[in-house]
Design the sequence.
């Protein structure tokens, strides 16, 4: 099999670190973003030819105004714990989920949320369903409508 190149954010710890280790063990190349290169010094030493640690420039990563506005509309006053533990991921996720996806389709928020709730039930994503019910209720979906979706 040909050697692949991967890009993984936040390889300092947690899931990103575990994924980085698995990728490097199988012989693929990895470019990983880190906040502190000391935390990945062992990977740099063990895989000097296949691992490249990058510290992202702060000014290049930010959550868009649209993503911030939509996140606040869906989840008023909520700050994700990931914003502290994995800021790179939450920036990518929020920009995708609360800006790019929403801008792509011409759906009203209520319709979008009811569709998402139905899809979450269909794939048995019950934890995610519980979270999104709160957003749906914030955006005008009624409890009766939620019940009908189920």
Sequence:
């Amino acid at each position: 099999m040909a050697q692949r190149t991967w890009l993984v954010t936040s390889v300092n710890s947690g899931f990103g670190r575990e994924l980085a280790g698995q990728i490097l063990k199988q012989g693929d190349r990895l470019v990983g973003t880190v906040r502190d290169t000391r935390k990945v010094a062992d990977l740099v030493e063990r895989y000097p030819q296949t691992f490249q640690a990058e510290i992202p420039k702060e000014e290049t990563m930010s959550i868009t105004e649209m993503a911030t506005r939509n996140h606040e509309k869906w989840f008023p006053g909520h700050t994700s714990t990931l914003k502290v533990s994995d800021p790179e991921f939450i920036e990518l996720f929020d920009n995708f989920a609360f800006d790019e996806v929403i801008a792509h389709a011409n759906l009203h928020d209520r319709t979008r949320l009811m569709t998402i709730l139905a899809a979450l039930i269909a794939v048995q994503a019950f934890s995610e369903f519980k979270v999104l019910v709160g957003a749906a209720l914030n955006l005008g979906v009624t409890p009766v409508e939620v019940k009908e979706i189920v």
